[in-house]
Amino acid sequence: MIARAKILQPPWKEISRQREGATFGIWVFLASEMLFFGSLLLLYTAYRVANPDVFIIAGRETDIWYGTVNTAVLMTSSLTMAVAAQAAEADMRRLTIWCLGATVILGLMFLVFKGFEYAEDIKKNLVPGANFALKPPAAQIFFALYWIMTAIHAIHLSIGLGLVGRLAISGALRRVQLRENPQVEVTALYWHLVDVIWIILYPLIYLMGRS
Amino acid sequence: MTDVAINGELPLPREPSYLGAGHTVASWLGTTDHKRIAILYAATITFFFFLGGIAISLVRLDLFTPAGDLLSDDTYNKLFTFHGVVMVWFFMVPSIPGTFGNFLLPLMIGARDVAFPRLNLFSWYLFLAGGFCTLYALIAGGVDTGWTFYTPFSTMFSNTHVVAAALGVFIAGFSSIATGVNFIATTHMLRAPGMKWFRLPLFVWAIYATSLVMVLATPVLAVTLLLVIAERWLHLPIFNPDFGGDPLLFQHLFWFYSHPAVYIMVLPAMGVVSEVITCFARRRVFGYDFMVYAMVGIAVIGFFVWGHHMFVSGQSPYASIVFSFLSFIVAVPSAIKVFNWTATLYRGQIGFEAPMLYALGFLGLFTIGGLTGLFLASIPVDIQVTDTYFVVAHFHYIMVGGTVSAYFAGLHYWWPKITGRLYPDIWARFAAILMFFGFNFTFFPQFIVGYLGMPRRYHVYPPEFQVYNVMSSAGAFVLAAAYLLPPLYLTWSLIWGARASRNPWNATGLEWKTSSPPPRENFAVVPHVEEAPYQYHPEGVAPEHGGENYRAQGDQT
User: Fold this and answer.
1) CATH no. for residue A138?
2) How far lies A20's CA from each of A23, A183, B327, in Å?
3) Of all helices (H) and strands (E), which one includes residue A37?
4) Residue B452 lies in a domain
């Protein structure tokens, strides 16, 4: 009961209402995030329409193996996150914590693979600048967008890792009750946003010019 | 707490007021009370308001003469940029939502606090961090791009502290988004029993519509500034024409935020004015439903008019025609509001207390600003006056004549509620009138000189324009004097002002049904709302002439 009282925060009077409010709030925030990534996708679209051939040449230089493996890793993390959220509802505490832990590990794996991929890209001179590997000028725009979009995605993912990790640790230490806790659903929704964004980025970056 | 159905009065709370709930610095900096956070915002934006004001005072001083005698060209550019950046993002955008929105939204809907009190505090800290980041840019040497950060100048040519300034605005943007999410969730989830959507005071609707724009427009600005930072700092070519980049894309993205941002600034002002005019005319608002539809309409249509900032940019003429048409359309709901306020005054028992003087000032100045906006929405006229002082005068009529007037109207209207003190009304009326005249002396000549062809942002100008510039600069100092008065007499009232009763204006609205200042919990019992807002007189019957139905500040106990 003590843990339950801890979940209920002012100004709310009932946990069910508080959960409704938290879920509603995160959905509004996700709408904001869609506009955030939407502006980047708009830029990508405008430049791709202006330079269709160059984007195909540049897209072939990305590493499809890292991209594909990372997609699989992130989709799996989405599954574990979804299971964690459902398990929390069913009061299966042990399963919830295991799944939250798995989500964190998969998220970290994604970042590690991304790091290796970045190292390869730097080795191949794919950072826009004087020594850029590709001739056409617009290829630098493709890679500028590649770096910015993947970096912003990685920052979002890192924030997600912090949220999931915090839930996993405080849940494991029994500092908070996971069942009925509005933070579980909020965290899950945020994590799924990070996945959805990646699902959009993957074809734009890695499948460009490979059909 | 028990639910009590009320028609007239709520029992007064017995706990100490929110101001008496703690006197340490930590009790303020760590507070999650929406009312204290409102005070934190008020202090911060007042600081930025005077900072931005000092910058533009130097500019106006320099413009007394055609030759730039006082400032160097570089300093001049940095000062008007600083004025623009600070006033737009660190005063106007958070002004009414951050202060009155925070203070009044929960009170008006009968809630204990906003939906996410800790996020609310975090939002203020983000705002503060962004402000310091931008201030650093000033202290380190300034920025000279104008508040619009246009590329390629901002990314490739400017030698000033663009990164720090843009980063500051970027951070403050997230404060805006957090506030918007919080207000939307609060309005949806925490209305008191019986407070249906169409019983909400118009101020709540205004804050709700503003929050929608904040949540959906601000992220686009965030990305845009992030790209400017990436291009400048990491040399990633996004808008660089050498690589096929398109500076026009920057303008599209920038104005996709910055035009709706105009509505972030003016919608809350419309909310304040609706509260003040109904109270001091002792009238139900005319056409409540259409006031609501108009505000939501402005918020939505406002997203589709950004291209009217780019008529001379070389965008497709077909795009220009569509944007021009939509810009005329967005003026319709604004016109509905102006007509409805006027109709609310009709047969009212009008009192000319300070808040009403500011609100009436808003009405006139906003109308002039709005009508000149129609000139600018018309492509041929816009091409003639693009980047002239005509544009400067137009948006100052909306933002300063409109929003700042409304901010002062709200400040004087809710001051007894916020502080529990009454201010000297005669001084407040004097400041309101001085502000109105000072404002018009400053900006009306700019319409003329702009129409005659004087471009904005220029340090020197031909001697034939001097007479208008002298008028404008002289007016600016009258205006500055008017702005210095409220801090003086309002501070005076904090110490020597008489204690305010719970409802000194005899106004309707839940915020007036609790004590002044309210306790931490806002209400002693959960209010139960049974009627529409603004019940100043029986339906269908205008307030009687000569009746004692209007009571001045402090009459009711």
Assistant:
1) 1.20.120.80
2) 5, 11, 38
3) helix A15-50
4) yes
Q: DSSP letter for B282, please.
A: T
For residue B533, being part of any structural domain is answered with no
Of B293, B282, B167, B153, residue with least CA distance to B222: B167
State yes or no: ipTM above 0.85. yes
Asked whether the beta carbons of A186 and A21 are under 8 A apart, the reply is no
Number of domains in chain A: 1
CB contact under 8 A, A10 and B242: no
* pTM assigned to the model: 0.95
Stretch (H or E) spanning B528:
strand B526-528
Residue B170: is it exposed, middle or buried by C-beta count within 10 angstroms (0-12/13-18/19+)? buried
Query: Cβ of A84: how many Cβ atoms within 10 Å?
Result: 29
Please check whether residue B28 lies inside any domain of the structure. no
pLDDT at residue number B546: 52
**In the numeric block, which tokens belong to residue B7?**
């028609």
Task: Judge contact between A121 and A113, C-beta under 8 A.
Answer: no
Residue B450's alpha-carbon distances to B17, B77, B176, B271, in angstroms, are: 51, 19, 33, 31
Asked if the structure places residue A119 within a domain, the reply is yes
- The CB density around residue B498, as the number of other CB atoms within 10 Å, is 15
Residue A202 belongs to some domain of the structure: yes
Structural domain total, chain B: 1
CB contact (8 A) between residue B216 and residue A11? no
Backbone angles phi, psi at B532, to 5 degrees: -70, 160
Predicted confidence (pLDDT) per residue in B94-127, tens digit: 999 999 999 999 999 999 999 999 999 999 999 9
B253 contacts on A by Cβ (under 8 Å): 39, 42-43
The CATH number linked to B281 is: 1.20.210.10
Taking CB atoms and an 8 Å cutoff, what residues of chain A touch B183? Answer: none
Q: Which of B238, B242, B520, B526 to mutate to test the interface with A (most CBs of A within 10 A)?
A: B238
Q: Which residues constitute the domain of residue A156?
A: 14-206
The pLDDT-based confidence of A3 (bands split at 50, 70, 90) is: low
Of the candidates B405, B281, B409, B273, the one whose C-alpha atom is nearest the C-alpha of residue B344 is B281
Q: Which tokens hold the place of B50?
A: 């005077």
Contact between A10 and B224 using a beta-carbon 8 Å cutoff: no
User: What pLDDT does residue A6 have?
Assistant: 76
- Residue B175 is part of which domain span? 34-523
C-beta of residue B239 within 8 angstroms of C-beta of residue B247: yes
A98 within a domain of the structure (yes/no): yes
Domain annotation covers residue B539: no
**If you ran DSSP here, which 8-state letter would residue B421 be given?**
B
Angstrom distance (rounded) from CA B300 to CA B179: 19
Task: Note whether residue A122 is domain-resident.
Answer: yes
Give residues with Cβ within 8 angstroms of B351, minimum separation 6.
Answer: B280, B282, B550, B552
SS3 sequence of B63-97:
CCCCCCCCCCHHHHHHHHHHHHHHHHHHHHHHHHH
